[in-house]
Amino acid sequence: MLEYLAILLVFSLILTAILSLLKKYIPLSPRIIYGTVGISFILGAFFPVTITTLSPAVVMAVYFGLIVIIAVALGYAESRIFLNTSSATLLDNVLEPENSAEIPVDDYDSSEEETADSPVHMTANEHHEDEIGIDISAGHQEFGYTNCPEDVISTGENIPAEEEELTPEPELSSNRAQQVTAEPVSPRDIAAAEAAAEAGDTCRDEDQTSHGQENNESSEDITDKTTFPVTINDFISAGFKARTTGDLIGAVKYFMAAFQMNREQHMSTTLALEICTVYQGLGQYFQAMLILKSVIEQENFISEPDLRQKINERLIYLDILAELLKITKMPQAPYSKIPDIIKIKANLEKDKKLIELNQGGGIN
Fold first, then answer.
1. pLDDT category, 75, cuts 50, 70, 90?
2. Which of 45, 105, 242, 347 could disulfide-pair with 251, CB 3.0 to 4.6 Å?
């Protein structure tokens, strides 16, 4: 019995050495090696019983055959588990944003969303009855207009300088009256005093006139140097300029102002798509869908089927993309930071849904 246990231990050590050597060429984990050795010990417990009934060669063949089969089964199971784990880890790494340190999802500032959704105020002007103003007090520094006073920008009128009060004090006037009644005054003194008073009034009027002209010139210079968008084309140009410089919030404001002023369906559709694109750049996909829905729900406004289909396709794509971003735990990631695999998945799902809608009766 002792000899049998010694032989069994030697076989186990040899098997462990062989598996350790094979580990360099075959990716075997330590669990497979030690599991196989443990199984060999379990099979070795039945070795004395089988050797009494069968020949030693058959017993050794069965013994090693069972060990090899069990080792192969363990290796296959381990490889399947490894492949599933590796694919899941790789997918998680791909779906992470490329620069998560630059734009963390948790540090998303909702003030941008509130700023982007702020309504555009309508201001009345003597030259334009319904002129669009976009929070000018907050937009001076935002778009480079830093040297313009608010009063000049908001009204465009010149504020005249305050006139100095020229009424004499009561005490002085009463003292002068007492002096006039107490002391006699010659006609020559009265004429000289009147001449001096007229000369002083003339000088004061000239100073006020020159001061008012200087104020007018300075205000005219300021209004000439500072230009503001007043027409639809001006707002569209300002929106594209802000978008080119990276000021997406300013681009939304300008495009929204042009969108509210416009009443032509092709231009409104184009502006709605532009606003939607800017919202995608900000990571605000819900607002992007809202602006498109506000256009598509006006049945009498957009009568061409092609335009309606184009907006519907963008709505379906944004809806699917928002769902995928929620699943990947990055719902507010800017569109430029979304991995290409998610965009491809959203496009495939959009095409699939469009086919289903067309088969069911088409897109309304």
1. low
2. 242
